[in-house]
Amino acid sequence: MIKSEPRGLSWAVVQLLDCLKKLERGLEADQDEDENLPNVKAIMAAYRSGKLNWNGTSVTYWSNGELITGPQKLEMKDLYALSAKHGPKGFWVAGIMIAIRNPITQATNTMATTITFDFLEDTGSSSMRIFSEDKKNIERLSGAKLPVIGHALKQTAAGQVHVQNVVLQAMIMKNQQNLLPYWVDIKAAVTPGAKGLSGDRLTGVWIHHPLFVLSMPDNTQRKHIGTNINEMMLNLPLPDHRNAVPPSFY
Known about the structure:
Layout: H1 11-29, H2 37-49, E1 59-63, E2 66-72, H3 76-86, E3 91-94, E4 128-131, H4 132-142, E5 148-156, E6 159-170, E7 173-174, E8 177-178, E9 184-191, E10 212-215, E11 223-226, H5 229-235
Parallel strand pairs: 4-9
Antiparallel strand pairs: 1-2, 1-3, 5-6, 6-9, 7-8, 10-11
């Protein structure tokens, strides 16, 4: 992997280039509906020439193979503005490290443009996962395309998979009431297909950042979430130790 790249590049950049080469092959093999192949090639050229270096605290914005702006700190208002101007096709954010509704239409979103999905809470998943059918439904309801911020390779139990990354706004709801004080901007990986046929939607770890998350030794697999740990401790149910046993193997 190192020998295939110019001398003097850091190990982090070499690893990133290896990932980008795999994405390049994947986009060349697919139809590249988001028109992001020019961005991947341009980003690789920038890293190889030394014009761009890996920095985990900043991002760069690309459109149709050209650098728009950056490196700079990620600001969601900048991302949405640039995505609206240059996207959704041919738009890429490099270096984004952020953890359901369409943020493009957040000023006009109502319950009619908000979809509630069931998710599998999986703390082993680094990001939220939805399906292409979910993405189509969100876009149809909101009347706007979701911001696409590029493609990535995800490591799964079945090996590496090529996914599209989008930005969503998420909220925990009950009886159509918001349980968080604000909608959370989240990076979500979009995989082909629909829930059931292609697996489960995954929450990722974003819930653990704005909330306290507790579990009880009662084998119910329930999670107790909240913003006030003292209130949670006072209102937690009593543990049922008799049933606190691992689930049976299937």
